[in-house]
Write a structure and sequence with these properties.
The protein is α+β, with helices and mostly antiparallel strands. The chain is built from twelve helices and 40 strands.
């Protein structure tokens, strides 16, 4: 047995030696360049294409068994352009000889220089590689028929191979598609690797330039990395990845677009995990950093990681988006976004444990959790900001604020809130909003966005709205009510709203009016809005109201039932109008209805009634006593009385009024003072903005003329004072002469009556005397007859 084995091994060594001698003899005695024509003919027979061998073919034997090809070209398929289908300028493949005897292959750097490949598809769909693909398919079928036991696995192949590297230089690939008119060319393609091994990372460098005509695009790509892999364990790594890209096209947001990417990538397909470490992407002035890891890649992936975004250079942002005019790009420089998150698609959850944004002096901190991420997202979280300056923030965004009465407004704000949301609702809870000196707290929710259901409970400690309104101007103050613009309301949206909420305000200042303890409760359903209860304390008194707004029909309807009680009118008017035209303790009750949205239409349809009362007050702008004295002096030809303060004191002013289609009418507006009593009757036309009032004044006290003498002849007279004209320019008048003429006529009539009474009395006395005489005579005659 041992002798037989010795003979077998000896015979095998002899056969191997003879084989190697045969190879040496072939390499020494044969010149491959002598067989160019046979090689070309064989390729022509097999492919139908012409093979042009332009360069030299060289063999090497020891220590490297190698093949070096010079320039060669493979012709195009029939029916295509005459340019070669493929070509190389130089190719070099060498295998170390001795390791082959150990069933191992040590391959020197595989070199391929000047590769050119022209791919062409005609408009009818035929390609210039269809014939080659057919042959490749046959080869693939043969390989598929090879029994699995005979197939060599990639792991086994690479274990037996040792390749010093791959060197592809100056390669060019051109693609032309006649059906779309697209031409793409990849030029300057370089692929250089280090030694290829399963045990050590493989350095790789790739560079290329791409040019497209449809769309027009040019790009330069440079990539370097170290590739490590374990095929048996299905683990792959790209370490120290560096990618540089520069592209130019009118379709790009920025031209040219520059991109730098670096990081470490790893994947374990057997464990279904992947990770990205030290990722850094720089482009368009921004820098993005990331640490990511993922699992269950082929099932329901789960991932977690950190992201960081910082705007290093704000300049490119101006090319990327159309920024508002006046926006300060430099202010965005240094803006940052950081987040830490975890995602689990199996559980359908996403958690953002940290998300912070810092930009333009604003810092936002967000925490977020999403459940049922795919089926029905349910979002919850919290949001918090730092104290920032809204005026500065809006200015940096290029948003021009309207002029405000207080230039020091909008200088401080902050926000804090918890929130919840889904595809059907959004809710804010524990809301805390600060704006300047005001603090807003409460809860707010909206459900069913198609027909919103709104609920809220809000509290505001104090606010001065006048700070945020435009400064008052004379033009606005003199503007007629008729010039007010109509209001355009989204009626369909209003009809869909369902609102129930209350709003409490501790202190409020608006239009210079001050109030406190305000409560406004709003209820809206199917187009019917009601604000009730509505209450407030103001100017030592109180206000209560019940407002209704009905948009169920095409013409909206308004209704109000409002009441002021014990309000000091003087301070109120002073704050509201800048002048206390009246003073006293006022109480007013009004019930009104109206229709429409146009202010003029509202006034035309205004109907209702009301009553008012003032106690112990004054009316400024008119001095009824002075008007009477002035008219009396004119009538008597006396000097005009000295100017007096234009105000009329009263101890009580009461009355009622009705409104019919914008016309206010009163018949019992009365006032009392120590000097006179006043009854006002007439109309106030809100539509035409006209006054037509008669103020009947009866003097009950001592009224003195310019000489400080009592005007006794006016005492007890009813003097009519008229107020006519427009709201803007009312005219006052007193007809003292007419009153005095009426007084003289009355005196004459009274004298006539007195004379008549005196005459009548004397006549009656004479009649009585004559009657008595007659009666006496008759009695005397009767007695005489009786005596007879």
């Amino acid at each position: 047995m041992k002798r037989a084995l010795t003979w077998i091994l000896g015979l095998a060594g002899l056969l191997l030696g003879l084989f190697l001698l045969a190879i040496v003899a072939v390499l020494i005695l044969l010149n491959p360049n002598d067989y160019r024509e046979q090689i070309a003919n064989t390729v022509q027979e097999q492919t139908g294409r012409e093979l042009r061998i332009i360069g030299e073919i060289e063999f090497s034997f020891f220590p490297w068994l190698g093949l070096e090809l010079g320039q060669l070209e493979l012709g195009n398929a029939p029916g295509f352009a005459e340019e070669p289908f493929a070509g190389i300028r130089r190719a070099d493949l060498k295998v170390k000889l001795l390791p082959l005897f150990r069933m191992q292959a040590e391959i020197d750097t595989i070199a391929l220089h000047g590769l050119s490949l022209n791919l062409h598809r005609l408009a009818d769909g035929r390609s210039n590689w269809d014939d080659l693909v057919g042959e490749a398919s046959e080869i693939e079928e043969e390989e598929a028929a090879t029994p699995p036991s005979e197939a060599v696995s990639p792991e086994q192949l690479l274990e037996s191979l040792a390749i010093n590297g791959i060197e592809i230089l100056d390669a060019r690939i051109r693609w032309q598609d006649d059906s779309s008119g697209q031409i793409a060319q990849l030029s300057g393609l370089e692929l250089i690797t280090g030694a290829i091994s399963l045990r050590e990372p493989i350095p790789i460098r790739l560079a290329a330039r791409l040019v497209l005509n449809e769309p027009q695009l040019s790009a330069q790509l440079d990539l370097s990395t170290e590739l490590a892999f374990n095929l048996a364990e299905e683990r792959y790594q790209l370490n120290a990845l560096r990618l540089q890209l520069q592209a130019s096209s009118s379709l790009l947001p920025i031209d040219p677009l520059k991109l730098n990417l670096q990081g470490d990538l790893a994947a374990d397909l057997k464990q279904q995990t992947a990770s990205i470490d030290n990722l850094l992407l720089q482009t368009m002035g921004a820098e993005i950093g990331a640490q990511l890891s993922a699992s269950q890649l082929l099932g329901d992936p789960a991932a977690q990681g950190r992201l960081h975004l910082q705007l290093k250079d704000s300049g490119p942002l101006g090319q990327l988006v159309e920024l508002p005019e006046g926006m300060q790009l430099s202010a965005l420089q240094g803006s940052r976004l950081n987040t830490r998150f975890s995602l689990d698609l199996a559980d359908q959850t996403l958690k953002v444990d940290e998300l912070s944004l810092s930009a333009l002096g604003l810092e936002l901190a967000l925490k977020l959790a999403i459940a049922q991420l795919i089926d029905n997202p349910q979002i919850s979280g919290s949001l918090q900001s730092n104290e920032f300056v809204p005026r500065q923030l809006l200015g940096q965004l290029g948003i021009e604020l309207p002029e405000m009465a207080d230039p020091n407004s909008l200088i401080l704000a902050s926000l804090r809130s918890e929130f919840a949301a889904s595809t059907e609702h959004v809710a804010l809870s524990k809301l805390q909003l600060r704006l300047d000196d005001s603090q807003l707290q409460g809860d707010l929710s909206v459900r069913n966005f198609e027909a919103p259901v709104i609920r809220y409970q809000l509290k505001l400690d104090e606010i001065d709205l006048d700070r945020y309104l435009p400064p008052p101007s004379e033009a606005e103050a003199s503007e007629s009510l008729a010039e007010a613009e109509p209001v355009d309301l989204p009626l369909e949206l209003l009809r869909s709203l369902d609102i129930d909420g209350s709003f409490q305000i501790g202190k409020l200042k608006v239009m210079n009016l001050r109030s406190d303890s305000i409560l406004k409760t709003l209820r809206a359903e199917k187009g019917l809005f009601r604000v009730h209860p509505l209450s407030a304390n103001l100017y030592q008194g109180s206000y209560s109201g019940d407002l209704r707004f009905d948009v169920r029909q095409n013409t909206p309807k308004l209704a109000m039932n409002e009441r002021l009680s014990g309000v000091e009118a003087g301070p109120l008017l002073k704050d509201f109008l800048g002048e206390d035209y009246a003073s006293g303790t006022a109480s007013v009750a009004v019930t009104m209805t109206a229709e429409g949205l146009d202010p003029l239409a509202i006034r035309r349809s205004l109907n209702g009634q009301g009553n008012l009362s003032f106690e112990n007050g004054q009316i400024k702008g008119i001095n009824i006593g002075h008007l009477i004295r002035q008219a009396y002096a004119l009538y008597k030809g006396q000097p005009a009385p000295a100017e007096e303060t234009r105000q009329t004191d009263f101890t009580a002013l009461r009355g009622s009024f009705t409104v019919r289609n914008g016309l206010i009418n009163t018949r019992d507006l009365s006032a009392r003072s120590p000097l006179f009593q006043v009854l006002t009757q007439g109309d106030v036309d809100l539509v035409r903005e006209q006054l037509d009032l008669r103020i009947d004044t009866t003097i009950v006290g001592g009224l003195k003329d310019a000489a400080n003498q009592d005007i006794d002849e006016l005492k007890g007279l009813k003097l009519p004072i008229t107020v006519k004209g427009s709201f803007a320019d009312p005219k006052f008048g007193v007809d003292v002469a007419g009153v005095l003429r009426a007084r003289v006529q009355q005196a004459v009539e009274e004298k006539k009556e007195e004379v008549r009474q005196q005459v009548q009395e004397k006549v009656d006395e004479r009649v009585q005397e004559e009657t008595k005489k007659i009666e006496q005579q008759i009695q005397n005659r009767l007695f005489d007859r009786l005596r007879r």
